[in-house]
Structures are given as structure tokens and as C-alpha cells.
Amino acid sequence: MTSASTITAGTDATPRKGGVVTWACAPGFPPAVIFPFTPAERMGTRNILEFQALMYRTLYYFGSDGTPNVDYAQSIGEEPVWSEDGLTVRVKVKPWKWSNGETLSAENVLFWVNLMKVKGARYGEYVPGYFPDNLTDYGKVADDEVFFTFDKVYSKHWVLYNQLSTITPLPRAWDRTDAGPANASGDLADVEAVYEYLMAQQGNIVDEGNAHRTKWADSPIWSIVSGPWRLKSYTLEGVVTFVPNEHYSGPNKPYLDEFRQVPTFSDEEQYEMLKAGPDAENGIQVGYLPLSFATEPAIDPVVGGPNPLTEYTMFPQSAFCIRYISLNFNNPTVVGKMFAQTYIRQALQSSLDQDTAVRDIYQGYAYRQNGPVPMYPKTDYVSPRQREGAWPLPFSPGNAKALLEANGWDTSVTPAVCVRPGTGPGEAGAGIPAGTKLSILLRYVEGRPALTRVMENFRDAAAEAGIELRLEEVYGSILVAEDGPCEPTATTPCTWEMCCWNGGWAYHHPTGEILFSTKAGGNFGFYTDPKADELIERTVTSDDLDVLYEYQDYIANEVPVIFTPNFPIRLFEVANTLGGFGPINPYGMINPENWYYRD
């Protein structure tokens, strides 16, 4: 067996120009959105990091050297320059080219910011009260420079990593409607119509049979790109093919002639494709090792363990992320009332055995996640109490049962039954009538055997405490479309309960406003807590780690989501004939422009 190793780009061989690389992707999530102003229900690794980011580059690029830092060389924006009072930041745009020859400009940046200003609620990273709501002024300094004036002094690190990082410059050619060119980059009145036009150009984003996808490559809109790749084709079957953008202005231009992404439908299918080898008919040069097929335990989740695939080298990608199960606080039934009770959320968290999953299911490739700040890559951001073990809610069905009994539930049966309704001490809480059964539907993505085992163990342990979890496997793309952010209406009943898509959220800086602030774009379950909002607001104005610790310890104890074992976002398997794959980006990005076949 070959040991896991990392190959640094440009040091292992002389790059050879040309060739095709085929990547077998994770099951269940074909790209559904090409317009990078992505709604929350479609924010995900497959859409954003593996698809859009290859074509449309953000203002700032992060993690290229394998560390959680900004990479100015690969960024469209120059390093921000701040005023002496700390309120105004200026950003100069590099004179890179769009694929249609247009020069990147201040207007391209303002086009995006105006979209955020008017349509922020439909963007997955928008947080009410934050960018651009927290600006008192913004605009163009010169053709290649913009300014942003904030309403108060914020952490400069936070502004760069969590505010300016949300911007994706958009080309002038996209600033139009069916009637012709518009001026959304300069006039907020034009934004609504331009947005509707662009959304229509990509087709129905929740329709799995969206035929518009087959037209994206030839679209006069989506074919205009700023990144190193452009789309050659997208089939209804989900095969995505990229070719180099010949006009890419960035420092790393593709070596390959073509980069192809093919869908898979289960971990088992992925493993069989890898076993056939990279030179087999329809062979794949890049895939991932399903955690359920790791043959020997990993000593370290970042390094990995022995590789069962001798024709490939393993590259664990430990992203700066957390993983969790979402709870729908907006569910209009009694289930939503139950989620509003902290003790029920704590009982759920106490019923999930992370340590056994890490050891026995994930073969040491995973690690426990106690709260809202990533444990890996290791940083000083994790609070001291959470670094040390299972604080605050270790696995204990007995403790979970005791919590329920102390708050008005009869746990002698499963599902437990509410016997003390009301809002006083020792009672179940508002909106939970007598006789209510503690039964919850937990839907999770299909095709992932390791996840299925985690969910089944969770179900069994929760039953010991008196909680019935009804499990249902769902195709990934359908799951996230149906169990996404919603508010109850006649047309959107919003009745999903618990949802696990085997993922979570990748951070730039882990201050939490995107996930846990009231009505934030990434706050899929609509959790709301005035104290959490207050603590988050303190983290964005201060670089004091104690402030970040106070916030995360509060969230860990309140459990607005059920934290699940974390593991590398991908255990990449890369054909031994392929170079340039490392260092591995900790934000989940991929850089096929750096890959090459060795001479």
C-alpha cells in the first residue's frame, strides 16, 4: 500500500502541457446554479467551490498556499487601504480581462454590491445589518478603484475575510434585461429587472431536469468569465466539462486541455471507479476515497492513513469548516415549538456519539466538533474549554433522558410524552400541549454509507433517552432544495424538521454572523436569539480572542444546530501520473489549473 502524501505544485516533475483530467464527484449534488449570486438553498461545495469559482473569481482569493490566509497574487483586488479613522476602505481592481476582452473595473464590483443592496435576502451569504447594510456610503474613486465607508469601526481582519470576501465582480455584459443594456452598476432602480433577467437565464434552480443547463456553455451571458476556466458543456446527465479560458489574466494558467467532472450516485460506485484505475476505459484521474472504504485507521485526520488504492495518492482536504444537522425553527407545527426549547436541543446533542463515530465509522479520519469554530486546521480561534474534550455536551443518553424528565416529559416510553405542559419551571415549554410525542423526522443525504451508520446510531441512542428519530434518505440535490430556509405560507408550508446533507459551513473568519445571526442567509433553520446576536456583534468589532471564545461557548451550549463529527471535506485520490495537486486549500477550493501530467 502507498502512504498518504502531499505533492507540492511545481516541485515533483516538469509540467507537461495538455491532456484531459476526469474527476468523479460526490453523489447527489449536480451544479444547479451558474449565476454566482447564489440563494441560500443552493449554497454548497458543489455549486460554489467546484463549479462557479472556476469561472467567476471573487474579489479576494483565499488559501492558495495551504493556510487560511488571503492570496493577493491570485486576487482581483489589491490589498485594501484604510483611512486613519478606520471607517473607510479603498480597494483597487487589477486590470485583468474578462474573456470578452472587457477590463475588470470598479463598475464590476459595484454591480455586485448593488445586487446585494437590493436583493441581499436572496443571496446565501447576506446577513441583515451587515454588508452592505453597514455602509454609510460607497462608490467609485476611479475606473479601477472603489471605496466603502462603514457605519462604525469594525475589525479590519473581519471586513476583509467576511465582508469584502463576499464580492464577486460581474461583467458589464451581464448588466442588461430582455430589453437591452441596463445600469444596475450605477442605478439601484435597475437592479430588480437585471436580477430577474439573470435568474431566468439559468433556468429553474430547483428543477432536477432543468434543460437550461445544457445551454449554459453557449450562453452570451455565462460564457463571459474572469477565472481560469470556461464551460465547454453540461449534459442533462450531469457531466460538466471545462476548457481553459484563453484570456485569463491570473498568475496560474491551466496546463490541461480539458477538465471533466462526472457524477456518481453512491460511495460504492465511486470506489469501484477508483479500483478500476486511472487508465481504465472511462477511467478517472481524480476522485475521493469514501470514508466507509478506508481499510486502516488514520493516525491524524490531516495526514490520513494507508491508501488502499496503489495507483493513486491520497490528499486529505481538511477544510476550515464545521458540520452539523439543521433544525427548522420555522416549522409551524409543534416540532418548531420543541426546537425552540434549549433543553430539547441539548438532549439531541447529548444523544449523538461523536467519539465512537470518529473511531469506528470514520476510521480516525474524523474529529469531534463541539461548537461553531472549526477544530482543524488548528488555530487559536477555538475556545480553551472546547479544545480540551467533549465540553459542553458529551455523549450521554442518560443525561438527555434526565433533561427531558426534568422538563415535563414521560420517558418511560419512546417517543416520550409531554405530561407537564406550560411555561413554568419543570414544564415542557410554550406551544407544547399535553400528550405531545417527542418524534422528529430526520432526513439525510443518500449514498453515503458512513453517514447512514452515524444517523442510525444517533437514532438508537436518542431512543434510549425517549426521542424518536424517524430516518429518511433523500437524493442530495432534492434534499437541500426541499429542506432549505423558508417561512410558512400557503405555498411554502415549511414543514421540514431536521436535515443533514453531510456538510455544514466553510468559514473565512469564524465569527458566526452568517450562520447564527437572526435572518442571516446561512441561518437555514431561522434560529434567533438576541443574546447570540449581541455576542456576534461584539466579535465583528474586536480582534480580542476572549470575545470570540465567549460567543462560541454560548453557541455550543445553546446548540442552534446539532454538531456532528467533522472530517476532511474530501479524501482526494489523485492518479500518480498527475502533478501539481498540492498544497491543499483549507477553504475547500480546487485549482485544476495547477494540475498537469508529468513528463
TrEMBL record:
Range of residues in the leader sequence: none
Protein origin, superkingdom: Bacteria
Gene Ontology CC: one annotated term: cell envelope
Pfam families per UniProt: SBP_bac_5
Keywords: Signal, Transport
Family: Belongs to the bacterial solute-binding protein 5 family.
Full protein name: Peptide/nickel transport system substrate-binding protein
Source taxonomy: Bacteria, Bacillati, Actinomycetota, Actinomycetes, Pseudonocardiales
